[in-house]
Amino acid sequence: MTDVAASWRAVLDRVRAAETRAGRPSGSVEVVAVSKLQTPEAIRAAYAAGARAFGENYAQELRDKSEALSDLPGLRWHAIGPLQTNKARYVARSAHVFHALDRLEVARELSRRRTGAPLDVYVEVNVAGEGTKSGVVPAALAPLLDAVRPLPGLRVVGLMTMPPLAPVEEVRPFFRALAALGREHGLAGLSMGSTHDFETAIDVGATVVRVGTAIFGERGAPAPRLRAP
Ligand SMILES: *Cc1c(COP(=O)(O)O)cnc(C)c1O
Q: Given its phi and psi angles, is residue 163 left (phi above 0), alpha (psi -120 to 50 degrees) or beta?
């Protein structure tokens, strides 16, 4: 069993060290603890150690966990996985932040369903132009931003990317490309970097890193839904 509290502190130390190396203020990078396929007990352990932002990929799992853990004050849910329109209501209801917007129809549905505080949204960019990947290609970013920015209930705060699976020294250009797009479109938020490359992402300007395995240990295969809809 992973000692979640110790792993959380070790990741936080590495994040703070990477900030310092990059000449960035301590605490300028937010760490989202990616808890997909991990148990509510593991999330409670990370919360007890100080984690407040948790990342989930699957809409129903997010809904179930946000209900099971609704007693934890200040916990913020980050929906980080690709989303289908017919599941947008779960994210609109349970998430504070959505990192994987890449289609206008999903944005419209989130906007229609959202009540209360606006949902902070990152637009996912497929910077490498890989055919199989989610995310908009860079050329489609400007029209999507123009269409999404006026929608009520959503606040576009930044860009997100998942670089190709490659050795860590090869991902830097993809992070650089996302940072350049952020500057071009006036977006300060950059959600990039996970377990094997978050230090590189911080060096290039990530404002949010999404770290799962280094905090919680290996995940199992995607589980069946925790509960029927
Ligand atoms: C699972 C996941 C992560 C975390 O990956 P690790 O390698 O476990 O740190 C980050 N971002 C997204 C979009 C994910 O799906």
A: beta
Q: Range of 177's domain?
A: 2-216
Three-state DSSP class for residue 105:
helix
- In angstroms, the CA 53 to CA 77 distance is 6
- Residue nearest to ligand 1 atom 7, measured at CA: 195
Number of domains in the chain: 1
Instruction: For residue 198, give the ligand 1 atom closest to its CA.
Output: 9
Spell out the alpha helix ranges (H) of 149-208: 172-184, 198-204
**Ligand 1 centroid – CA 26 distance (Å):** 23
In a domain, 7, yes or no: yes
Name the percent of the chain in helix, strand, coil, to the closest 5: 40, 15, 40
Instruction: Identify whether the C-beta of residue 18 lies closer than 8 Å to the C-beta of residue 203.
Output: yes
d(CA 96, ligand 1 centre) in Å: 18
Is the residue at 23 inside a domain? Answer: yes
What phi and psi values does residue 208 have, to the nearest 5 degrees? -140, 130
pLDDT tens figures, 102-159: 999 999 999 999 999 999 999 999 998 887 789 999 999 999 999 999 999 999 999 9
Establish whether residue 211 lines the binding site of ligand 1, counting it when its CB lies within 6 angstroms of any ligand atom: yes
> At 207, which CATH number?
3.20.20.10
Question: Domain for residue 223, yes or no?
Answer: no
